[in-house]
Amino acid sequence: MSKLILIDGNSIAFRAFFALPLLSNSSGLHTNAVFGFTTMLLRLMDEQKPTHFLVAFDAGKVTFRHSEYKEYKGGRAKTPPELSEQFPLIRELLKAFSIPQYELAGYEADDIIGTLTRMADDQGMEVIVVSGDKDMLQLASDNVKIAITRKGISEVDLYDKNEIKEKYGLSPLQIIDLKGLMGDKSDNIPGVPGVGEKTAIKLLQEYGSVEEVLAHVGEITGKMGEKIAEHADNARMSKSLATIFREVPLEQTLEQLQYDGYDGQAVATLFRKLEFRSLIDKMDLSGGVSDELDAEQESLTWATAALKPDPAIDFEISLTDLVAALPKVQAIHVESIGDNPNAAELIGLSFYSEAQTFYLPVSLLLSNEATEIRKWLADDKIPKKLYDLHRSEIVMGWKGIEIKGVKSCILLAAYLLDPTETSHTLHSICSKYGVSGIRADEDIYGKGAKFILPQQAALSEHLCRKANVIYQLADILEKELEKNEMSQLYHDLELPLSTVLASMELKGIKVNKDELKKLGEQLAIKLDELIIQIHQHAGGEFNINSPKQMGEILFDRLKLPVYKKTKTGYSTNVEVLEWLESKHDIVKHILLYRQLAKLQSTYVEGLLKEIKPATGKIHTYFKQTIAATGRLSSQFPNLQNIPVRLEEGRKIRKVFVPHQTGWSILAADYSQIELRVLAHISQDENMMEAFHTNLDIHTKTAMDVFGVEASAVDSNMRRQAKAVNFGIVYGISDYGLSQNLDITRADAAKFIEQYFAVFQGVRRYMDDIVKQARQDGFVTTMLKRRRYLTDIAHSNFNLRSFAERTAMNTPIQGTAADIIKLAMVQMDERLRQEKLASRMLLQVHDELVFEVPLEEMEIMQRIVPEVMEHALELSVPMKVDVNSGASWYEAK
DNA sequence: GGTCTCACG
DNA sequence: ACGTACGTGAGACCC
């Protein structure tokens, strides 16, 4: 039997657009509505298996309904440009799927669908109408079902005649009368004021139709009757507007809507352009690319890579043959399992050459017979390409094996090309750049509890394929980097940095475990006392760690005033608690409890878990390919957020000590690196002058903003000026500043205005960078690091404002990151040159931490600031403060 | 897995 | 009219 699917194209596009976050591909094209539309199509095809198909669109702005009622659809918000630009893509999508599409001037999609529904119904065809608009329910019949999207587009409610009866107690045609009485805000159809769905249904169940209701209006008592009588004309017109016109003069015949499926190649090509990776995988289109490339595919910059034939894979190769094959190897892959590289299990290596590709399990790699292979890996003069140099060096480093001569790291390159990309797995990079030939790790290994290593043959094939695509991707990505002028950043900074980081992480930092345990015991005593006191004040026991229970105690039981709410209930954060502190004695105990509980769980217990028993050290992992600004982040554990602001927490730093007795910890931090960077980038005369004369920048800001002498700046003025400076770096807004300083928005705005009056170069920079971001779609740092800002021209104020602040902040934060990274690479080099035993241990965004033997203390005190201050020359001097002591705590 | 809270620069 | 400061990671709770 034939089955016809009719889609209301505009309605589904709108639904998809508002249901999904604003996705966009790497060229800044928004794709969320297209994506939603696509998933809808795929599901319909899969579940319904239609024999006939059509997507109808509204044509133009004016329809016959406007001549009837010119306010029809008036007051509707304009279609956001982010959606408008997607309509051509949706048309393209339908073309790729070979699905007929149709529109007709003067008519809406509803009318086209209504007409076709009538025609199909007459022929006894089964029909499914898909829309987000409940008006469509009027089309239901024995053969016609209506699918209405629910909760965005992920689910639909399928209505047939009976279900409409069940849900509304009305026949399909009475849906029109329902609209006539209750109106429709979104189409600006008035209906009868005061009549909602409930009342309308009651009336229709009693009288049957709008006309009958009006005829019996005398019987309807009270206000309701008057209202209906008064708005009788409205009701009639509304009904007429809501009626779908089913006699559209169509050129399309039902036969023309026959659907015979689609060409996978055309769809795959479009999906690649749109970067619908998950869909490409789902449809298994990625593996199917064969030798013949169609013209369209050729237009993709990197599609040719897909031409590469499958590698010849040898997993039964002898070690002797393998060594003989090494000179031709161009790419390798180091496979390891586990999130934490310092605890990951090394599985094996694969090697790619044009002639053959082979796999070497870890057991063989570590055998005596593999010396030649390890030598090859450690040979700096043999160029290699791989994916994730940083992780590979750590994993191999734990086995005592070095990798040198790496000229390409796919992960690093992909990150630099777009640091905001959510995933940089080898598989996702392949999809993005049109390289086929590997499956996702998850496909091979499963995930979570289901994780399992496959048989040797399957494992070997998967890893060999990885080495193969690494080889293919290297060229593609490096050409892109070259285009973006990022080659130097990649080769001279980020790649060497990977090695520097790996060596820091492998060394680790010594932790005084006994001291840490002692701290934990002291905390436990205080926490126990606090728990008792808090429960007493509360008049009963509850879990203080549960924000939900805490909220109930404070606001329901103790009836404290509610200051702020979260999405799910009462907010109980520090800001709220500090506001409540004077109102109840329990609050100060809670505040102290929170502070100490954080120390106990995150820092005492958390750090204890990370100490390697054999060495007493902690080995963090600095992620090099996560932060959108170019900063590093630290994991397993995070050593970039060890407490410092409050003394109780700061004591945690006492447990970070040198790994040998007689050594010291040396910490060096940049003073005001971000504001110095801002002074340089903006070339603001006043600010540059301040740094040249080595003034305290916050005091200087206070002097200028308040118009007073240095001697007249009190601590409060300096504090406010400091907050303004922070705000400037973050991309200032009066609202943000007002929150931070707890002042009115108007006062905050005045501050900012005064600030810009004296720092005019800064104002110019802020204006220019936003303009430039709008023009280019991205911003850059001094070293050409790039961040795309897809929302910079968004119609939504919040999204656009956020993008604008990001445009202001990223060049500053990112350049600061560039500078300290440069300093790290140079410092590593310098330590080697000077043959020093001192070791670099940690980086905390503007601070480097070293351990230093006594005899090197003097030279390190000199060298470290020298290297850091001159890592990159700016038009203002850099300033670095150096401190040393027995632990990180003392090095302040 | 999402939410809240809080630690750092 | 809109209603956030920029960038991270981790622990606890709760569904």
Automatic annotation (TrEMBL):
Domain of life: Bacteria
PROSITE patterns named among the record's database cross-references: DNA_POLYMERASE_A
Keywords noted in UniProt: DNA damage, DNA repair, DNA replication, DNA-binding, DNA-directed DNA polymerase, Exonuclease, Hydrolase, Nuclease, Nucleotidyltransferase, Transferase
Pfam families per the UniProt record, alphabetical: 5_3_exonuc, 5_3_exonuc_N, DNA_pol_A, DNA_polI_exo1
Any one Gene Ontology molecular-function term assigned to this protein's record: DNA-directed DNA polymerase activity
Enzyme's top EC category: transferase
Reaction catalyzed: DNA(n) + a 2'-deoxyribonucleoside 5'-triphosphate = DNA(n+1) + diphosphate
Domain (DNA-directed DNA polymerase family A palm) ranges: 649-856
Family annotation (InterPro entries): 3'-5'_exonuclease_dom, 5-3_exonucl_a-hlix_arch_N, 5-3_exonuclease, 5-3_exonuclease_C_sf, DNA-dir_DNA_pol_A_CS, DNA-dir_DNA_pol_A_palm_dom, DNA/RNA_pol_sf, DNA_polI_exonuclease
Enzyme Commission number: 2.7.7.7
Domain named 3'-5' exonuclease: residues: 310-482
Assembly mode: Single-chain monomer with multiple functions.
Protein family: Belongs to the DNA polymerase type-A family.
Protein name: DNA polymerase I
Organism: Paenibacillus psychroresistens
Phylogenetic lineage: Bacteria, Bacillati, Bacillota, Bacilli, Bacillales
